[in-house]
Amino acid sequence: MAMEMRQQLKMSQQLVMTPQLQQAIKLLQLTRMELQELVVQELEENPLLEETTEQEEIHEPDTLEVAEQEIEPAKDSVDFHEVETGEETLRDWDSYLDGYNYSSGEQQYGGDDERPSFENLLTKKGTLIDHLLWQLHMGQYSEMDVRVGEVIIGNIDDYGYLRATLSEIALASNATEEDVEDVLDCIQEFDPPGVAARDLRECLLIQAHNLGMKGSVVERILQNHLGDLEKRNYKQIAKILKIDINQVLMASKIISGFDPRPGSTFSTDDVHYITPDIFVHKVGDDYVVMLNEEGLPSLKVSSQYADVRGNGAIDSNAEHYINDKMRSALWLIKSIQQRQRTIYKVAKSIIRFQREYFDRGIEYLRPLVLRDIAEDIGMHESTISRVTTNKYMQTPQGLLELKYFFNSGLSTSDGDFVASESVKNRIKEIIEKENPKKPLSDQKIAELLEVQTVNIARRTVTKYREMLNIGSSSERKRHF
To answer: Which of the chain's ends, N or C, has fewer CB atoms near its CB within 10 Å?
Structure first.
Protein backbone atom coordinates (compact mmCIF):
# COMPACT_ATOMS: atom_id res chain seq x y z
CA MET A 1 0.00 0.00 0.00
CA ALA A 2 1.36 3.37 -0.98
CA MET A 3 1.79 5.92 1.80
CA GLU A 4 0.81 9.51 1.24
CA MET A 5 0.55 12.74 3.23
CA ARG A 6 -2.65 14.70 3.24
CA GLN A 7 -4.37 17.44 5.27
CA GLN A 8 -7.53 16.79 7.24
CA LEU A 9 -9.77 19.06 9.31
CA LYS A 10 -10.87 17.76 12.69
CA MET A 11 -12.96 19.40 15.42
CA SER A 12 -12.28 18.55 19.07
CA GLN A 13 -12.62 20.05 22.52
CA GLN A 14 -9.80 20.18 25.02
CA LEU A 15 -8.87 22.09 28.15
CA VAL A 16 -6.06 24.54 27.54
CA MET A 17 -4.10 25.52 30.64
CA THR A 18 -3.45 29.15 29.89
CA PRO A 19 -0.76 30.97 31.88
CA GLN A 20 -3.50 32.95 33.63
CA LEU A 21 -5.29 29.76 34.69
CA GLN A 22 -2.05 28.22 35.89
CA GLN A 23 -1.29 31.35 37.91
CA ALA A 24 -4.74 31.39 39.53
CA ILE A 25 -4.45 27.72 40.50
CA LYS A 26 -0.96 28.27 41.90
CA LEU A 27 -2.06 31.22 44.03
CA LEU A 28 -4.90 29.21 45.55
CA GLN A 29 -2.60 26.72 47.23
CA LEU A 30 0.02 29.19 48.43
CA THR A 31 0.30 29.89 52.13
CA ARG A 32 -0.06 33.45 53.31
CA MET A 33 3.70 33.90 53.68
CA GLU A 34 4.37 32.36 50.26
CA LEU A 35 1.86 34.78 48.75
CA GLN A 36 3.66 37.70 50.37
CA GLU A 37 6.98 36.49 48.97
CA LEU A 38 5.48 36.09 45.49
CA VAL A 39 4.04 39.63 45.57
CA VAL A 40 7.39 41.06 46.68
CA GLN A 41 9.13 39.17 43.85
CA GLU A 42 6.63 40.45 41.29
CA LEU A 43 7.12 44.00 42.55
CA GLU A 44 10.85 43.62 41.94
CA GLU A 45 10.53 42.06 38.48
CA ASN A 46 7.59 43.94 36.99
CA PRO A 47 8.18 47.70 36.59
CA LEU A 48 4.47 48.29 35.92
CA LEU A 49 3.44 46.85 39.26
CA GLU A 50 3.51 49.23 42.22
CA GLU A 51 2.48 49.22 45.84
CA THR A 52 -0.08 51.84 46.77
CA THR A 53 0.06 54.18 49.71
CA GLU A 54 -2.82 55.84 51.50
CA GLN A 55 -1.59 59.29 50.46
CA GLU A 56 -1.67 58.59 46.72
CA GLU A 57 -4.33 60.37 44.74
CA ILE A 58 -6.86 58.63 42.52
CA HIS A 59 -5.91 58.57 38.84
CA GLU A 60 -8.31 59.91 36.24
CA PRO A 61 -10.17 57.13 34.38
CA ASP A 62 -9.49 58.54 30.91
CA THR A 63 -5.80 57.73 31.19
CA LEU A 64 -6.57 54.06 31.75
CA GLU A 65 -8.88 53.14 28.89
CA VAL A 66 -6.12 51.35 26.99
CA ALA A 67 -5.21 49.26 30.04
CA GLU A 68 -8.83 48.15 30.38
CA GLN A 69 -8.80 46.85 26.82
CA GLU A 70 -5.51 45.02 27.28
CA ILE A 71 -6.78 42.82 30.09
CA GLU A 72 -9.63 41.28 28.07
CA PRO A 73 -8.73 37.61 27.47
CA ALA A 74 -8.76 36.05 24.06
CA LYS A 75 -12.03 34.53 22.91
CA ASP A 76 -10.57 31.02 22.80
CA SER A 77 -8.89 31.17 26.18
CA VAL A 78 -10.15 29.25 29.20
CA ASP A 79 -11.48 31.29 32.10
CA PHE A 80 -10.71 30.21 35.63
CA HIS A 81 -14.26 29.18 36.48
CA GLU A 82 -13.15 27.32 39.58
CA VAL A 83 -12.58 30.55 41.43
CA GLU A 84 -15.37 32.63 39.99
CA THR A 85 -17.70 33.57 42.79
CA GLY A 86 -20.89 33.81 40.79
CA GLU A 87 -21.48 37.25 42.26
CA GLU A 88 -20.71 40.60 40.71
CA THR A 89 -17.89 40.79 38.22
CA LEU A 90 -14.55 42.37 39.06
CA ARG A 91 -14.53 46.00 39.92
CA ASP A 92 -13.76 48.53 37.22
CA TRP A 93 -10.20 48.24 36.04
CA ASP A 94 -9.66 51.77 37.28
CA SER A 95 -9.55 50.34 40.78
CA TYR A 96 -6.56 48.20 39.86
CA LEU A 97 -4.52 51.14 38.69
CA ASP A 98 -5.61 53.23 41.65
CA GLY A 99 -4.79 50.45 44.10
CA TYR A 100 -6.79 47.41 45.08
CA ASN A 101 -7.48 46.18 48.59
CA TYR A 102 -7.68 42.39 48.51
CA SER A 103 -10.09 42.01 51.41
CA SER A 104 -13.42 40.43 50.60
CA GLY A 105 -14.52 40.05 54.20
CA GLU A 106 -17.14 41.91 56.11
CA GLN A 107 -14.52 44.08 57.74
CA GLN A 108 -10.77 44.38 57.60
CA TYR A 109 -8.30 43.01 60.06
CA GLY A 110 -6.86 45.82 62.07
CA GLY A 111 -6.10 47.24 65.45
CA ASP A 112 -2.83 46.89 67.29
CA ASP A 113 -4.48 44.83 70.02
CA GLU A 114 -5.50 42.17 67.48
CA ARG A 115 -2.15 41.81 65.76
CA PRO A 116 0.18 38.87 66.50
CA SER A 117 2.38 39.48 69.53
CA PHE A 118 6.12 40.04 69.24
CA GLU A 119 7.01 38.27 72.49
CA ASN A 120 9.06 35.68 70.67
CA LEU A 121 11.23 38.07 68.67
CA LEU A 122 14.40 37.23 70.59
CA THR A 123 18.10 37.33 69.89
CA LYS A 124 19.97 34.24 68.72
CA LYS A 125 19.74 31.34 71.15
CA GLY A 126 22.96 29.69 72.30
CA THR A 127 23.57 26.15 71.04
CA LEU A 128 24.58 23.07 73.02
CA ILE A 129 28.00 23.10 71.33
CA ASP A 130 28.56 26.74 72.32
CA HIS A 131 27.58 25.95 75.91
CA LEU A 132 29.96 22.99 76.13
CA LEU A 133 32.87 24.82 74.49
CA TRP A 134 32.42 27.72 76.91
CA GLN A 135 32.71 25.31 79.85
CA LEU A 136 35.75 23.63 78.27
CA HIS A 137 37.62 26.89 77.74
CA MET A 138 36.69 28.19 81.19
CA GLY A 139 38.29 25.14 82.84
CA GLN A 140 41.96 24.73 83.64
CA TYR A 141 42.87 22.15 81.01
CA SER A 142 46.08 21.56 79.08
CA GLU A 143 46.39 22.48 75.43
CA MET A 144 46.11 18.82 74.44
CA ASP A 145 43.00 18.31 76.62
CA VAL A 146 41.35 21.32 75.00
CA ARG A 147 42.18 19.98 71.53
CA VAL A 148 40.73 16.56 72.38
CA GLY A 149 37.74 18.16 74.10
CA GLU A 150 36.91 20.26 71.03
CA VAL A 151 36.87 17.11 68.87
CA ILE A 152 34.63 15.32 71.38
CA ILE A 153 32.20 18.25 71.59
CA GLY A 154 32.17 18.54 67.81
CA ASN A 155 30.84 14.97 67.62
CA ILE A 156 27.95 15.47 70.07
CA ASP A 157 24.52 15.53 68.43
CA ASP A 158 21.58 17.81 69.21
CA TYR A 159 20.24 15.37 71.83
CA GLY A 160 23.55 15.45 73.72
CA TYR A 161 24.91 12.03 72.70
CA LEU A 162 28.46 11.34 71.52
CA ARG A 163 28.35 9.96 67.98
CA ALA A 164 32.02 8.98 67.50
CA THR A 165 34.15 6.20 68.95
CA LEU A 166 37.18 6.77 71.15
CA SER A 167 39.50 5.53 68.39
CA GLU A 168 38.01 7.95 65.86
CA ILE A 169 38.40 10.87 68.25
CA ALA A 170 41.97 9.80 69.11
CA LEU A 171 42.89 9.71 65.42
CA ALA A 172 41.31 13.10 64.73
CA SER A 173 42.97 14.80 67.73
CA ASN A 174 46.37 13.04 67.49
CA ALA A 175 46.01 11.59 71.01
CA THR A 176 45.77 8.19 72.64
CA GLU A 177 42.46 6.51 73.49
CA GLU A 178 43.35 6.74 77.19
CA ASP A 179 43.74 10.52 76.87
CA VAL A 180 40.42 10.73 75.05
CA GLU A 181 38.66 8.72 77.76
CA ASP A 182 40.07 10.98 80.48
CA VAL A 183 38.82 14.11 78.72
CA LEU A 184 35.46 12.46 78.02
CA ASP A 185 35.05 11.76 81.76
CA CYS A 186 35.55 15.49 82.39
CA ILE A 187 33.06 16.58 79.70
CA GLN A 188 30.46 14.16 81.08
CA GLU A 189 30.51 16.26 84.24
CA PHE A 190 29.55 19.37 82.27
CA ASP A 191 26.10 20.91 82.22
CA PRO A 192 23.53 19.67 81.21
CA PRO A 193 23.78 16.45 83.26
CA GLY A 194 23.98 13.37 81.07
CA VAL A 195 25.70 15.05 78.14
CA ALA A 196 28.35 13.25 76.03
CA ALA A 197 26.94 9.80 76.84
CA ARG A 198 27.27 7.05 74.26
CA ASP A 199 23.91 5.40 74.92
CA LEU A 200 20.79 5.78 77.04
CA ARG A 201 22.09 3.67 79.92
CA GLU A 202 25.24 5.77 80.26
CA CYS A 203 23.20 8.98 79.99
CA LEU A 204 20.93 7.97 82.88
CA LEU A 205 23.84 6.67 84.95
CA ILE A 206 25.66 10.00 84.60
CA GLN A 207 22.58 11.79 85.93
CA ALA A 208 22.30 9.30 88.82
CA HIS A 209 25.96 9.82 89.74
CA ASN A 210 25.43 13.57 89.51
CA LEU A 211 22.84 13.16 92.30
CA GLY A 212 25.21 11.09 94.42
CA MET A 213 23.51 7.75 93.78
CA LYS A 214 26.55 5.56 93.17
CA GLY A 215 25.91 2.09 94.57
CA SER A 216 22.20 2.79 95.05
CA VAL A 217 19.23 0.75 93.85
CA VAL A 218 18.83 3.29 91.05
CA GLU A 219 22.32 2.56 89.74
CA ARG A 220 21.85 -1.21 90.00
CA ILE A 221 18.61 -1.07 88.05
CA LEU A 222 20.12 1.12 85.33
CA GLN A 223 23.19 -1.09 84.96
CA ASN A 224 21.49 -4.47 84.73
CA HIS A 225 17.70 -4.17 84.48
CA LEU A 226 16.92 -1.31 82.10
CA GLY A 227 15.01 -3.68 79.80
CA ASP A 228 12.76 -4.89 82.62
CA LEU A 229 12.26 -1.29 83.72
CA GLU A 230 11.05 -0.31 80.24
CA LYS A 231 8.54 -3.20 80.38
CA ARG A 232 7.45 -2.16 83.90
CA ASN A 233 8.36 -5.62 85.15
CA TYR A 234 8.89 -4.41 88.71
CA LYS A 235 8.29 -7.77 90.39
CA GLN A 236 11.05 -9.39 88.33
CA ILE A 237 13.51 -6.63 89.25
CA ALA A 238 12.63 -6.92 92.96
CA LYS A 239 13.06 -10.67 92.83
CA ILE A 240 16.50 -10.55 91.18
CA LEU A 241 17.81 -7.73 93.38
CA LYS A 242 16.21 -9.33 96.46
CA ILE A 243 14.62 -6.10 97.60
CA ASP A 244 11.12 -4.95 98.40
CA ILE A 245 9.00 -3.96 95.40
CA ASN A 246 8.35 -0.55 96.97
CA GLN A 247 12.08 0.20 96.67
CA VAL A 248 11.89 -0.65 92.99
CA LEU A 249 8.86 1.59 92.54
CA MET A 250 10.63 4.47 94.31
CA ALA A 251 13.78 4.01 92.17
CA SER A 252 11.62 3.90 89.03
CA LYS A 253 9.98 7.17 90.02
CA ILE A 254 13.40 8.81 90.42
CA ILE A 255 14.61 7.49 87.07
CA SER A 256 11.45 8.76 85.34
CA GLY A 257 12.58 12.27 86.35
CA PHE A 258 15.86 11.95 84.43
CA ASP A 259 16.21 13.54 80.98
CA PRO A 260 16.89 10.96 78.23
CA ARG A 261 17.76 13.79 75.82
CA PRO A 262 19.81 16.30 77.83
CA GLY A 263 20.77 18.37 74.79
CA SER A 264 17.23 19.00 73.60
CA THR A 265 16.87 22.11 75.79
CA PHE A 266 19.47 23.77 73.56
CA SER A 267 17.72 22.83 70.34
CA THR A 268 18.31 25.40 67.59
CA ASP A 269 15.28 24.38 65.57
CA ASP A 270 13.33 27.48 64.60
CA VAL A 271 9.86 27.69 66.04
CA HIS A 272 7.35 28.34 63.28
CA TYR A 273 4.52 30.56 64.41
CA ILE A 274 1.27 30.28 62.53
CA THR A 275 -0.45 33.44 61.42
CA PRO A 276 -4.12 32.87 60.66
CA ASP A 277 -5.45 33.60 57.19
CA ILE A 278 -8.97 34.10 58.53
CA PHE A 279 -10.42 35.55 61.72
CA VAL A 280 -13.85 34.48 62.95
CA HIS A 281 -15.55 36.57 65.62
CA LYS A 282 -18.97 36.11 67.15
CA VAL A 283 -21.02 39.29 66.99
CA GLY A 284 -24.40 38.79 68.60
CA ASP A 285 -25.81 35.57 67.20
CA ASP A 286 -23.77 35.70 64.00
CA TYR A 287 -20.18 34.84 63.12
CA VAL A 288 -18.21 37.47 61.24
CA VAL A 289 -15.45 36.36 58.85
CA MET A 290 -12.46 38.65 58.29
CA LEU A 291 -9.53 37.99 55.98
CA ASN A 292 -6.12 38.75 57.42
CA GLU A 293 -4.56 41.34 55.11
CA GLU A 294 -1.71 42.24 57.46
CA GLY A 295 1.58 42.43 55.53
CA LEU A 296 0.01 41.87 52.11
CA PRO A 297 0.72 44.94 49.90
CA SER A 298 -2.07 46.64 47.96
CA LEU A 299 -1.09 46.66 44.30
CA LYS A 300 -1.73 48.97 41.38
CA VAL A 301 -0.48 49.38 37.82
CA SER A 302 1.83 52.30 37.22
CA SER A 303 -0.03 55.07 35.39
CA GLN A 304 3.31 56.50 34.25
CA TYR A 305 3.78 53.61 31.84
CA ALA A 306 0.11 53.55 30.87
CA ASP A 307 0.35 57.19 29.73
CA VAL A 308 3.15 56.53 27.20
CA ARG A 309 1.44 53.63 25.48
CA GLY A 310 0.09 54.25 22.01
CA ASN A 311 1.23 57.90 21.82
CA GLY A 312 4.19 57.22 19.50
CA ALA A 313 6.76 58.26 22.11
CA ILE A 314 8.31 54.76 22.25
CA ASP A 315 9.17 52.14 19.64
CA SER A 316 7.12 49.02 19.00
CA ASN A 317 9.42 46.70 20.99
CA ALA A 318 9.16 48.87 24.09
CA GLU A 319 5.41 49.17 23.71
CA HIS A 320 5.10 45.41 23.33
CA TYR A 321 7.16 44.95 26.52
CA ILE A 322 4.97 47.41 28.43
CA ASN A 323 1.79 45.74 27.19
CA ASP A 324 3.07 42.34 28.23
CA LYS A 325 4.06 43.52 31.72
CA MET A 326 0.76 45.36 32.16
CA ARG A 327 -1.18 42.26 31.22
CA SER A 328 0.87 40.25 33.71
CA ALA A 329 0.30 42.80 36.48
CA LEU A 330 -3.45 42.97 35.93
CA TRP A 331 -3.79 39.19 35.86
CA LEU A 332 -1.83 38.92 39.10
CA ILE A 333 -4.15 41.37 40.81
CA LYS A 334 -7.20 39.57 39.46
CA SER A 335 -5.87 36.18 40.57
CA ILE A 336 -5.14 37.43 44.08
CA GLN A 337 -8.63 38.88 44.32
CA GLN A 338 -10.13 35.58 43.20
CA ARG A 339 -8.01 33.72 45.75
CA GLN A 340 -9.15 35.93 48.61
CA ARG A 341 -12.80 35.80 47.60
CA THR A 342 -12.64 32.01 47.36
CA ILE A 343 -11.03 31.62 50.80
CA TYR A 344 -13.72 33.89 52.22
CA LYS A 345 -16.55 31.89 50.64
CA VAL A 346 -15.09 28.57 51.83
CA ALA A 347 -14.76 29.94 55.38
CA LYS A 348 -18.37 31.14 55.36
CA SER A 349 -19.54 27.75 54.11
CA ILE A 350 -17.57 25.91 56.81
CA ILE A 351 -19.23 28.05 59.47
CA ARG A 352 -22.66 27.22 58.06
CA PHE A 353 -21.96 23.48 58.18
CA GLN A 354 -20.17 23.50 61.54
CA ARG A 355 -22.31 26.11 63.32
CA GLU A 356 -22.95 23.83 66.31
CA TYR A 357 -19.20 23.27 66.73
CA PHE A 358 -18.56 27.00 66.88
CA ASP A 359 -21.40 27.43 69.38
CA ARG A 360 -20.87 24.40 71.63
CA GLY A 361 -17.44 22.83 71.07
CA ILE A 362 -15.80 19.72 69.66
CA GLU A 363 -18.52 17.35 70.85
CA TYR A 364 -20.74 18.86 68.17
CA LEU A 365 -18.28 18.72 65.26
CA ARG A 366 -20.18 17.08 62.43
CA PRO A 367 -18.85 14.88 59.60
CA LEU A 368 -17.89 16.96 56.57
CA VAL A 369 -16.26 16.20 53.20
CA LEU A 370 -14.94 18.42 50.43
CA ARG A 371 -17.92 17.63 48.24
CA ASP A 372 -20.28 19.26 50.75
CA ILE A 373 -18.47 22.61 50.56
CA ALA A 374 -17.97 22.32 46.78
CA GLU A 375 -21.69 21.84 46.18
CA ASP A 376 -22.59 24.60 48.63
CA ILE A 377 -20.54 27.31 46.91
CA GLY A 378 -20.56 25.92 43.36
CA MET A 379 -16.91 24.99 42.94
CA HIS A 380 -14.93 21.85 42.23
CA GLU A 381 -13.62 19.62 45.02
CA SER A 382 -10.03 20.10 43.84
CA THR A 383 -10.42 23.85 44.32
CA ILE A 384 -11.69 23.35 47.88
CA SER A 385 -8.76 21.03 48.56
CA ARG A 386 -6.27 23.67 47.40
CA VAL A 387 -7.96 26.43 49.38
CA THR A 388 -8.00 24.45 52.63
CA THR A 389 -4.37 23.31 52.46
CA ASN A 390 -2.05 25.18 54.87
CA LYS A 391 -4.71 27.80 55.60
CA TYR A 392 -5.59 28.58 59.21
CA MET A 393 -8.63 30.06 60.88
CA GLN A 394 -8.61 31.84 64.25
CA THR A 395 -11.93 30.93 65.88
CA PRO A 396 -13.54 31.19 69.33
CA GLN A 397 -12.57 27.49 69.65
CA GLY A 398 -8.89 28.19 68.92
CA LEU A 399 -6.51 28.35 65.95
CA LEU A 400 -7.39 25.56 63.51
CA GLU A 401 -6.34 24.48 60.03
CA LEU A 402 -9.21 24.50 57.57
CA LYS A 403 -8.56 20.78 56.98
CA TYR A 404 -9.53 20.18 60.62
CA PHE A 405 -13.21 20.70 59.81
CA PHE A 406 -13.21 17.89 57.23
CA ASN A 407 -13.48 14.44 58.76
CA SER A 408 -15.33 11.18 58.37
CA GLY A 409 -18.19 10.14 60.62
CA LEU A 410 -19.32 7.19 62.72
CA SER A 411 -22.92 6.14 63.08
CA THR A 412 -24.79 6.41 66.34
CA SER A 413 -27.49 4.19 67.75
CA ASP A 414 -30.11 6.88 67.20
CA GLY A 415 -29.42 6.96 63.45
CA ASP A 416 -27.27 10.11 63.45
CA PHE A 417 -23.56 10.53 62.69
CA VAL A 418 -20.72 11.88 64.82
CA ALA A 419 -17.39 13.22 63.52
CA SER A 420 -14.26 11.14 63.96
CA GLU A 421 -12.48 14.09 65.64
CA SER A 422 -15.27 14.24 68.19
CA VAL A 423 -14.86 10.51 68.88
CA LYS A 424 -11.10 10.96 69.32
CA ASN A 425 -11.80 13.68 71.86
CA ARG A 426 -14.20 11.39 73.74
CA ILE A 427 -11.55 8.65 73.83
CA LYS A 428 -9.02 11.13 75.18
CA GLU A 429 -11.43 12.30 77.89
CA ILE A 430 -12.26 8.72 78.92
CA ILE A 431 -8.55 7.87 79.28
CA GLU A 432 -7.87 11.07 81.24
CA LYS A 433 -10.56 10.11 83.77
CA GLU A 434 -9.54 6.45 84.15
CA ASN A 435 -7.86 4.99 87.22
CA PRO A 436 -4.11 5.04 86.34
CA LYS A 437 -3.59 1.88 88.40
CA LYS A 438 -6.33 0.08 86.43
CA PRO A 439 -6.32 1.59 82.91
CA LEU A 440 -9.12 0.73 80.53
CA SER A 441 -8.62 -1.66 77.64
CA ASP A 442 -9.59 -0.64 74.11
CA GLN A 443 -12.55 -3.05 74.27
CA LYS A 444 -13.80 -1.40 77.46
CA ILE A 445 -13.46 2.06 75.88
CA ALA A 446 -15.49 0.83 72.89
CA GLU A 447 -18.19 -0.39 75.27
CA LEU A 448 -18.27 2.97 77.08
CA LEU A 449 -18.61 4.78 73.76
CA GLU A 450 -21.45 2.47 72.82
CA VAL A 451 -23.22 3.61 76.00
CA GLN A 452 -22.80 7.14 74.60
CA THR A 453 -24.59 5.92 71.42
CA VAL A 454 -21.38 5.75 69.34
CA ASN A 455 -21.02 2.51 67.37
CA ILE A 456 -17.30 1.80 67.19
CA ALA A 457 -15.15 -1.33 66.92
CA ARG A 458 -12.28 -2.11 69.25
CA ARG A 459 -9.74 -1.89 66.41
CA THR A 460 -11.04 1.59 65.56
CA VAL A 461 -10.51 2.65 69.17
CA THR A 462 -6.95 1.30 68.91
CA LYS A 463 -6.35 3.26 65.70
CA TYR A 464 -7.70 6.52 67.14
CA ARG A 465 -5.73 6.04 70.39
CA GLU A 466 -2.50 5.57 68.44
CA MET A 467 -3.28 8.65 66.35
CA LEU A 468 -3.55 10.57 69.64
CA ASN A 469 -0.12 9.18 70.69
CA ILE A 470 -1.66 7.49 73.74
CA GLY A 471 -0.13 4.21 74.90
CA SER A 472 -1.90 0.92 75.46
CA SER A 473 -3.42 0.01 78.83
CA SER A 474 -0.23 -1.77 79.91
CA GLU A 475 1.88 1.24 78.99
CA ARG A 476 -0.45 3.60 80.84
CA LYS A 477 -0.52 1.57 84.05
CA ARG A 478 0.98 3.31 87.07
CA HIS A 479 2.18 1.51 90.21
CA PHE A 480 2.74 4.59 92.35
So the answer is: N
